[in-house]
Structure formats: C-alpha cells, structure tokens
Amino acid sequence: MKKLIFTILLLTFVFLTTKANEHWDIFYKNYLINPGINVQSKFATGTDGKLYLAEIDYSGIYDPGITYVDVRSYEISQWTQDNIGQEGWINLGQRLQLKMPNNESNIDFVVTEDNQLYVGMQDSIFWYDANADYWVSYFVEDYIGGMMADETGRILILQSIEDDGEHHFQIAEFDSGNLVPVATIDYTLPGNIQFFHRIMNEANRILKYEDNYYVSIARASSHQNYYFVGNETSGFTMLQEHFTHLNLSSMVISPEGELIISHRLGASPYSLALKQYNFELNQWEDFNMQGLNDAQVYGNQLAFDQSGQLYLSYSADFNLGFLYEFNGSGWDHVGPLESVAVAHMPRIAFDSENQLFLMHGIGSGSAPLTIRRLTDPTADLNEREILNQKIHLYPNPVSQSFIIDLYQISFESGEIDLEIYNSNGQLILKQAATDAQTMINVNDLPDGIYVVNVRSATNNYSQRFVKQ
Hints:
This protein has 468 residues and is mainly beta. 6% of the residues lie in helices and 46% in strands. The chain contains two helices and 39 strands.
C-alpha cells in the first residue's frame, strides 16, 4: 500500500512538472548538488545577454566534507527547447571552496553593468578575470555581506567594525582589494546594548536610491532585522520597529523611492507579511496583500522589472504561493498555476529585454535547482484575469488625459466606477463611468506607474498605465 501511494505521488509530481514546463523555457536543471541546509545558490542576468549562476555544491563527489561554488554562464540567445539540463553552460574559472561561519551564512553574487563578476564569502571577495579565466581572491576583514554595485559601478559592501570597545557598521567601497570607507552606521539598542550582526546573513543588504543608502542588518543572537536609511553627509537613522524573520525576507525600492519589504512572520505558522515605510509618519505600514494565498511561507522575494512593475515570488505549503504581479489594487497570479508544485526558495531576475527568469529548488531529486523563463504570463489565468484583457486605454504612456474603452464589458451607465491607484496601492482618484468611452484627466498626477481599476457589481478589471 505504501509503495502504491509513493508511486501515485511520484507520478503526480512528474505530471505537474510536465504541465508547468509547457509555459516555461527551461534553461538549467541540476538534481545532484543537494545543499540540505539554508545556504542557497544565486543567479543573475548580464547586459551581455547571458545568464550567470553561482551554484553551491554540497554533493561531496569531489572531496567529502568540502563544499564548492561553481560559477557558470549561458548565452540566452542559444537556447533551444532541447535544453532541459546543463547543456550549453560554460564553467568560469576554477572551483571556489565555500567559506561560511555557520549554516545561516550567505554568499554574495554580483554582475555589474559592464559584466564584471564578484563572489563574496566569509572574509573573502573573488573577482573573475575573464582574460585569464581565473578567480582572483582578496582577503576582506570584517566583511558581513550586502555586496552591491551602484549606478557608477562601484562595489559596495558592509563591514562590522569594533574600535576601542565601540562598535559600528560601515559601508565601504571595494576596489581591487582596497577598502575605501563610504559611510558609517552607529546604533545602540535600548539599555545601552551594542548591536552586533549575524555574519554573512542574507538579510545584510545595501540598496541605493538617489543620495541615500538603505541598509538591512540581521541581529546576532535573535531572529530580528533592523533597517537604516542615510548617507555619508547626514548620517543614518534607524527606521522604527524591527521585524523577526532573519534571512527569509526581501527589500526593494520602487522607481519613485518607496521602500517595500516582504518577510516571514516570526511565529508559527510563519505566514507572509508585506510592509512599506511611510517616511512622513516615520512608521511601517501594511502593504496591500489582496489576492495572495495565506499559507506557511518559506523563501520569498520582491522584485521590480525594468518598467517598474512589482513582482513577488514565495514558496509555501500545499502548493500555494509561487509568482504574483501587483496590479495596483491587489496581486494577480502570473503563469500556470501548476508551477507552484515545483517552487522552492525562488529568486527572480530580468534580462535586458525585460524577460522574467525564475530560479528555484535546492538541487535534490524532488527539488532540482532550476532556472526557467516565463513564456506565457497569461497561461491558466482565472476568469477575472482573462476579463481584465478586455480593458483598453489610450494613449499609454499618457501626459494629460486618456480614454478608457469599456465596450467589451457590456457598459451600462451609472453601474461602473473608475478608480486609479498609485504604485503603493493607494486610491488617488475615483469617478463614475459616463460612457462606453470615458475620458480621465490625469494632468495633476505626478509622473509614475498607475493602475486604473474598472469596478462593477460583479467584477473588477484593471490595466496599468504610465504617466509622464
């Protein structure tokens, strides 16, 4: 009986995986690395039209007890439907031995705008010399993660500095092994307790928007993240309230400068939470979660595409979660629903053509490390989402006003409201539809991305537009 049940479950998994692949191009699949702990592989897209993968191999095939990082590249334009494994991927340089202080450690992986590659680990940063096909190693003292490339191409990292009994965090520029201090973050917990970090935790992050740095740091000895904003001139301020979620979190900044985070709540059943910081009121506020499944959440990631569209991917129990797109008034599921069966620790990236790539899995037989590209975002959409395609507005982008065409939804005057939401999901304009072709004046709205929502007694339809 147990054998029969196992066979049915296996066939169900194979069927769901096959169904999922109908609407996704598979670029990579590996069943044999099997990390088994929290540290995950990383991937990125380059402006050179390539995918880059920094894969952590725990298999012990080469040296028992030693873990390696392999970095590979793939030319996206070379993909064919026959590629469902590792064919066409090129190994870059030598294997790197993984350095990590504990099983919550992270690796940093950055591909710059000019396609320079960096890997960060405990006390070390590696730079790929493409001419020599070799990874150059640099010792970096007090390095705690957060590696990023800013708009000028500088590589920035976080350091934890202790000097004469005093402790602070430092954003530093990494330049061929040299460290140039950029900005200092001083913070002491209530009761005069110094705030120490978790080493190389994935929650240790830096983002930059205009002149400000946004920093997230995971606190040692607890499952808490703290957030800071500031710069080298005015110093840093801790954003009110901390969150208990350790590295199972994500942080993004919208094109308009809004700070949004996703995180797993710190108590069972570990459900998902979304927050946005209100800088005027100096407080975190709940971000719109309408349309998301409520289940026990594991990995999660927020990401903006190149047009400013917000996406969320997360893995959860009972095949819930997976990939969602924010429509201004809630979240729409993107892609085939069956795909949730194979999602684990998801990561999102967009290439230069704004194609969405997703990496998930840990590298075992039941959860292979997989990189896939979404080919049909409308596959298996529910009825409400299909009806959304009946909404047409023009011109788009818009500068002063646009016309919304309601002919395809059996317009009846007085029964349909038109609502405009900003990128934060806030309702900023509402009016009744007066005709099947109704003009909406948006001349007074700031430039940005908005969603117009058409609300009737039975359905909501929405479409995004750009004000410029």
